[in-house]
Each structure stands twice: as structure tokens, then as C-alpha cells.
Design a protein that fits this description.
By secondary structure, the protein is of the alpha+beta class. It is 43% helix and 14% strand. The protein is built from 10 helices and 9 strands. The strands form 3 sheets. It has a 5-stranded antiparallel β-sheet, sandwiched between helices. A two-stranded antiparallel ribbon has the order 6-9. Helix 4 (131-152) packs parallel to helix 8 (255-265). It is globular. The N and C termini lie far apart (61 Å).
Length: 322
């Protein structure tokens, strides 16, 4: 096996990436893949390892935030949804057909395997062209998300409602009580109160927002999780697949991007609900501070969004009774 020293951008591998390569190769070989020339495609919350020469990408979680059994259950849900979308003709990165469509446990991590996509025009190229070019790209991609939502609306399986929020944020907020990561006691109290509001909302979204389109969603911003290829585009990373209002998938996007979605879908967004979803997304980022001790580079990356949360009006029960 060739041991990579850097990822595809030339950045030296982190310790977690080196470990992920070992785990991915070991799991891949158990499934009958050679995996002689592994390449690290991405290194953050997950490490993506291309098990070359096969067209297979292993996704290795960087952080073990939940037990492997619970993570495997979430991953199976993701595989079920994405497999159904692929079979229905949706533009998605498909589960690899070279291995069983199920998670694989290896060294305390639960892995899933996807088809390798030859990406063109990666995000870093748009970012290098400047903020205007980057926003133009997201405007276009947000319009494409309307097509994905149309496919997802027909998914026949059961999914939890807004699961990236409830119950996912509860243990993270509890961890911040022990290690606040710069949050004050008042801010921790605010975060807990906002979470209680979200618990009430999740229990009955249509009851609080009767016009809400509650349906299967990508769950983690489809406008960002999209790859461009020579043959078109495909959506990826459905780890947070869930049910909820479409406004959740569109939270914190530029107004131009949200307008592009409205034009493509032919339906207006609920601005009051969008405001709630945006504040919920900011709370999600605040809760993610709990992982900074394990991944210190996230702290500076999240700081601007945490400051935005501080400036924005808190979520209170009143927002559910408009």
C-alpha cells in the first residue's frame, strides 16, 4: 500500500487523517477492495478517503460523538434515503455498488462507502475568485436545491423531525456547561432556553406554522454540499437527512440565493419560519463549540457565526405564537 503524505491539495496529513486512512484501508480490504493507493480528499468532521484504484470513497468520522451503534443507525438511514434517491434518478452521490449498502465498523468508527466523483470546479476555486463569484455560485446551487426537494418530497420512508437540532444539540449544550469555550453563564442559559423552544417546535411544526412544508430534507445545507462534474452536478453528504420545513435547508443563505430557490420551486418561503430556522442554525453552531477541544481549528472558523448569534434576538416562546 502507498502511504499518502498529503491530501489532494498538497496539505500534509493530520494525525486524524493518517488514522482515517488506516481505518478506511482496513475496512475496505475486509470488503474485498485492494485499496493500494489511498488518497485523502477531505479532512474535517469527516475524513474522505478515496480507496484507489477502486472508484470508492470511504467516509471516516473524525469525532466519535455518539456510540458506533447509534452512528451506524443514522448512517443506515442516510444510505436508505440516498439509495432511494439514486434509484429515482436524483442527482446524488450514490452509495458504492462495489460493497454492501450498510455501515461497517472498524476501530471504533462506523464507515460508509460512496462512489468516487471526479469533481470539476471545486469550491476552493470559486472562493479564490472572490466573494462575488462565491455568492454567484451559491445562488445558482440554491436554485438547484429545489429539484432535490422535489425528489425528497416523494421519499416513502420514516424520518425524524429536525433531528440535527433535537435531540442532537442536548448533549453538546450539556458539555458546554462543563467547558464553556468562552461563553458566559448568561449565554449558556440563553442557549438552553433556545433549545427548549426548539423542542416545543419540533413536537408540532404545523401546529405553530400551519403553512409549513414539512417534508424530507437534506438536513445540512444542500447548496453547500454539491459537487460539479463534467456531466452536471450531484448532491452529497446526507448525514443529517431529516424531516422538517424546507426553510431549514435554506437558513443563513444570502437573500439572492433564497430568491433563486423561490423562483425555481415556484413557492414563496415563510419569512417568519425562515427567521426561526436561521436562529436555530446559529444555535447549532454555538453548540458545536463543544467539539473545539477535540478539533481546535474549528474555534476561529466558528467565531464569526457565534458573534452573529450573540447579536441576533434570542429564540423565545413568543416566536411560536405569531
Amino acid at each position: 500500500m502507498t502511504n499518502p503524505q498529503s491530501d489532494i491539495s498538497g496539505t500534509p496529513l493530520s494525525e486524524r487523517a493518517e488514522r482515517a486512512v488506516r481505518i478506511a484501508v482496513g475496512a475496505g480490504r475486509r470488503l474485498g477492495l485492494r485499496a493500494d493507493e489511498p488518497r485523502v480528499l477531505h479532512d474535517m468532521f469527516n475524513v474522505l478517503v478515496h480507496l484507489a484504484p477502486h472508484p470508492v470513497v470511504a467516509r471516516v468520522p473524525s469525532l466519535a460523538l455518539v456510540p458506533p451503534e447509534e452512528q451506524a443507525s443514522r448512517q443506515q438511514r442516510e444510505l436508505d434515503v440516498v439509495g432511494w434517491l439514486a434509484d429515482a434518478g436524483a442527482p446524488v452521490v450514490r452509495p458504492s455498488p462495489l460493497v454492501p449498502r450498510e455501515p461497517v465498523e472498524c476501530e471504533g468508527r462506523s464507515l460508509v462507502f460512496w462512489e468516487f466523483i471526479d469533481e470539476r470546479e471545486p469550491m476552493r476555486e470559486a472562493a479564490a475568485a472572490g466573494m462575488d463569484a462565491l455568492e454567484d455560485r451559491f445562488v445558482e446551487q440554491t436554485g438547484w436545491a429545489a429539484e432535490l426537494h422535489s425528489f425528497l418530497a416523494r421519499y416513502p420512508g420514516e424520518l425524524p423531525v429536525l433531528s440535527p437540532l433535537v435531540p442532537t444539540l442536548a448533549p453538546l449544550l450539556e458539555a458546554l456547561r462543563k467547558d464553556p469555550q468562552g461563553l458566559t453563564t448568561a449565554e449558556l442559559d440563553r442557549a438552553q432556553q433556545e433549545y427548549a423552544v426548539l423542542e416545543t417546535l419540533v413536537a408540532d411544526v404545523p401546529g405553530h406554522f400551519p403553512g409549513a412544508r414539512v417534508q424530507p430534507l437534506h438536513g445540512d445545507g444542500p447548496s453547500y454540499n454539491l459537487l460539479r462534474t463534467a456531466d452536471g452536478y450531484v448532491f452529497s453528504d446526507f448525514e443529517d437527512v431529516t424531516r422538517g420545513p424546507v426553510e431549514w435547508d435554506l437558513a443563513l443563505l444570502a437573500p439572492r440565493a433564497q430568491a433563486a430557490y423561490e423562483e425555481a420551486s415556484g413557492r414563496p418561503l415563510d419569512r417568519a419560519l425562515l427567521d426561526v430556522m436561521e436562529r436555530a442554525r446559529l444555535l447549532q453552531i454555538v453548540a458545536a463549540l463543544a467539539v473545539v477541544p477535540s478539533m481546535p481549528e474549528l474555534g476561529p472558523m466558528m467565531a464569526p457565526m457565534v458573534d452573529q448569534w450573540r447579536r441576533r434576538a434570542p429564540l423565545t416562546p413568543e416566536v411560536l405564537s405569531r
